[in-house]
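Re: that backbone. Tokens:
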């Protein structure tokens, strides 16, 4: 998909500058007592999953403007994900959405293997009605007032587990659109009781080596209340269910200015952080590219993660979850994967002993300066060298454009005519 000679040409063009920058950064970090090789090894080992739905062009409630050469089906989506991984070497797993990505397991496995990809968490969908679905989710799914509708939603989640088992997945992510638009529309307690009862039935059928992730979101599609509205409710769910249940944090699913890194710290402290859906936002669940708006916030989230490394049972799942309305999704996802790697590298530069010392001495300036010193470091040469050494691109966007991948697939993939909204 990306010819090796083109990748080699592109890397060759960038190599002299990279070598010089890497050497200079190595000397700078050495003065701070940091071994650049150790940071590079951490970055090389860091991986983030890509959502299958991320490689299609997204949209808003108003419209969707299809892009050139959009994937027609899951096999095209896997190819696009393969390009992202080939160039970044950071995204070896794809997260599927059922029923959008339904296909014979053997075919999915074969295609993924050909591309050097595996399968991350399975995502169920009870926030829209599917053709031929007997009962509607208009008024909810796992929390619906009607027992048969709840049973249908439970059954769908069990099917997602079954499909995931055939693919080698080890987790199910449940996000529901359930909620209300009007005060008094539902009894808030009874609605949550119904949800808990339904999600317990899913949890009871979870394979022993699987994890169940529940994802909170404060509003949208419901606008007065959602059933799983915040991290507190999410924590209660994970606590009620048991040891295999964890909370997923989607960065866009909070009120503006919420201290997300503190939520992350709390969930880590109580052993319930399941993982992340990375994206960025200015106002709401904007699903913008990771670190495009608030890179310092992402760094602060990773500061909590790096501080918790080595804690027993600490193994959060990392995934991108974005909607690309005005960019080539492959370029956005490559850059976003690199941004989470960058945040990880930067957080790894924090001098933990110095930070703790400043905290114990109540020296606020020294503490915050330690954070800023790490954040201000340009670690791009580390990321680029880690990619190059793993067979990827020094500059993935440059290599991708040089290879002309989008034009090539546009010639065989007709422009998608799917209209309407496209929050995907
Ligand atoms: Mn999400």
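Recovered sequence:
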């Amino acid at each position: 998909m990306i010819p090796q000679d083109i990748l080699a040409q592109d890397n060759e063009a960038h190599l002299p500058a990279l070598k010089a920058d890497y050497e200079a950064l190595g000397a700078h970090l050495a003065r701070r007592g940091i071994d650049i090789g150790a940071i590079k090894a951490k970055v090389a080992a860091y991986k983030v999953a890509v959502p299958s739905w991320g490689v299609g062009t997204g949209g808003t409630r108003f419209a969707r403007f299809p892009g050139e050469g959009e994937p027609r089906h899951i096999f095209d989506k896997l190819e696009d994900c393969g390009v992202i991984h080939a160039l970044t070497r950071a995204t070896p797993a794809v997260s599927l959405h059922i029923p959008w990505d339904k296909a014979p397991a053997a075919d999915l496995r074969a295609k993924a293997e050909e591309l050097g990809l595996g399968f991350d968490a399975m995502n169920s969908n009870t926030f829209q009605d599917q053709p031929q679905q007997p009962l509607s989710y208009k008024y909810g799914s796992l929390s619906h007032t009607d027992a048969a509708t709840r049973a249908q939603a439970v059954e769908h989640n069990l099917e997602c587990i079954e499909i995931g088992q055939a693919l080698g997945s080890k987790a199910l992510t449940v996000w529901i659109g359930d909620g209300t638009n009007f005060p008094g529309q539902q009894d808030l307690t009874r609605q949550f009781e119904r949800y808990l009862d339904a999600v317990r039935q899913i949890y009871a059928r979870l394979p022993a080596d699987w994890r169940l992730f529940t994802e909170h979101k404060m509003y949208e599609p419901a606008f007065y209340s959602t059933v799983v509205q915040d991290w507190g409710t999410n924590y209660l769910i994970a606590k009620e269910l048991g040891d295999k249940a964890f909370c997923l944090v989607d960065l866009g699913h909070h009120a503006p200015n919420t201290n997300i890194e503190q939520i992350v710290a709390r969930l880590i402290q109580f052993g319930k952080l399941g993982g992340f859906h990375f994206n960025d936002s200015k106002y709401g669940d904007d699903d913008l590219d990771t670190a495009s708006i608030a890179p310092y916030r992402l760094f602060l989230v990773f500061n909590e993660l790096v501080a918790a490394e080595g804690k027993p049972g600490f193994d959060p799942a990392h995934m991108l979850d974005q909607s690309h309305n005005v960019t080539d999704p492959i370029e956005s996802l490559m850059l976003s994967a690199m941004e989470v790697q960058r945040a990880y590298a930067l957080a790894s530069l924090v001098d933990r002993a110095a930070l703790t010392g400043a905290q114990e001495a109540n020296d606020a300036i020294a503490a915050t300066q330690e954070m800023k010193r790490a954040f201000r470091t340009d670690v791009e040469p580390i990321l680029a060298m880690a990619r190059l050494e793993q067979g990827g691109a020094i500059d993935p966007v440059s290599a991708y454009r040089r290879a002309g991948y989008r034009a090539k697939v546009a010639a065989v993939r007709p422009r998608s005519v799917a209209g309407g909204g496209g929050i995907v």
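The first strand starts at residue 50 and ends at 51. Residues 48-353 form a domain with the TIM Barrel fold (CATH 3.20.20.150).
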